[in-house]
Design brief:
This protein has eleven helices and nine strands. The chain is α/β, with parallel strands linked by helices. A hairpin with a 3-residue loop joins strand 4 and strand 5.
Length: 308
């Protein structure tokens, strides 16, 4: 799977970080810092599971430099999603997940989707902010919950570029490799990009929101199969509202090439107390629902109910 976009990102990094060594955690972080991305399993099924926003390693220097306390920084975290996926992963799919938090580096945005107002040094011409980036929700976010500013002061652009190189790029290199291996073995692949969400009353407070970029990233038969399983289990679902899929879904979903991507948003209150972040009895039910949905989609792909 050729990835021209990511090769262009590497060229941009080479221009702004010539000869700069990989950044290291602060001394206090160094002992406990995990690898930025973890991958497990082999491409034994056509499905790949991913959790880009459940990372819980907050570098101490980042927390110290933030104007927000840790509990506010964690407000956008998809807590425990990698654990929710455990039963689905046990069925055979590869699993990729980030260990760093989205408030530090958001891999569900294009690499150079950054708000130029964040920086106190010149911003390269290749930086292209979307409306999300300009709103402060780019690959290195400027704001967190309720439009709260993350940083006490503007940062050098190099700090953001280092996060792209040391966190964003490894995540996407790992995910792309998993999808490439899976597609090579099975001739088709489906990325289930797993997220959690607060209640969404504007969409009727669904339990799950299934996002396929309004039909552009995934076969309609696959999203229908996922929806049927969840509804049969008693869950309320919504399609593409309010979440149609971010950069990951849009970038990796190419159904005509047999590369499908479906974003799965799960309501947090189904499995945890949103204030205390403690798991409750609904956790195992949601874990089981993810596994059943994964099993149904795997069967659909393996029996070629979906043609490419």
């Amino acid at each position: 799977m050729k990835n021209i976009t990511h090769s262009l990102i590497q060229r941009g990094l080479a221009r702004v970080l010539p000869g700069v060594p990989a950044s290291l955690p602060q001394e206090a972080d160094r002992v406990q810092a995990p690898a930025p991305v973890l991958v497990s399993g082999q491409p034994d099924t056509p499905v790949v599971l991913a959790s880009p926003h459940s990372g819980r390693f907050y570098p101490e220097a980042f927390v110290r430099e933030s104007r927000q306390p840790l509990n506010i920084l964690r407000s956008g975290e998809d807590s425990y999603v990698e654990e929710l996926a455990a039963s689905a992963h046990a069925l055979g799919p590869m699993f990729v997940h980030a260990t760093f938090p989205r408030v530090f580096c958001d891999v569900n945005r294009a690499a150079w989707d950054l708000d130029p107002r964040m920086f106190n040094t010149p911003v390269p011409a290749f930086v292209r902010a979307t409306y999300r980036g300009l709103a402060g929700l780019g690959s290195v976010p400027r704001i967190v919950a309720d439009n709260r500013q993350i940083y006490r002061a503007r940062m050098p652009f190099m700090d953001a570029a280092l996060r792209i190189r040391d966190y964003w790029m490894p995540y996407h290199a790992t995910l792309a490799a998993a999808l490439r291996k899976t597609h090579a073995r099975h001739g088709i692949s489906l990325l289930l990009d797993l997220h959690s969400m607060p209640d969404a009353p504007e969409a009727g407070s669904p339990d799950f929101v299934l996002g396929d970029a309004h039909g552009a990233s995934c076969s309609g038969l696959l999203i229908q199969a996922a929806e049927d399983v969840l509804k049969d289990m008693g869950f309320k679902t919504s399609r593409n509202t309010p979440y149609a899929g971010g950069y990951i879904t849009q970038h990796y979903g190419r159904p005509r090439e047999g590369l499908h991507a479906l974003q799965i948003e799960m309501r947090r209150s189904l499995y945890m107390d949103e204030k205390t972040r403690e798991k409750h009895n609904g956790f195992s039910d949601l874990q089981r629902a993810l596994a059943q949905m994964t099993e149904r989609l795997t069967t659909a792909l393996q029996t070629r109910e979906i043609n490419g």
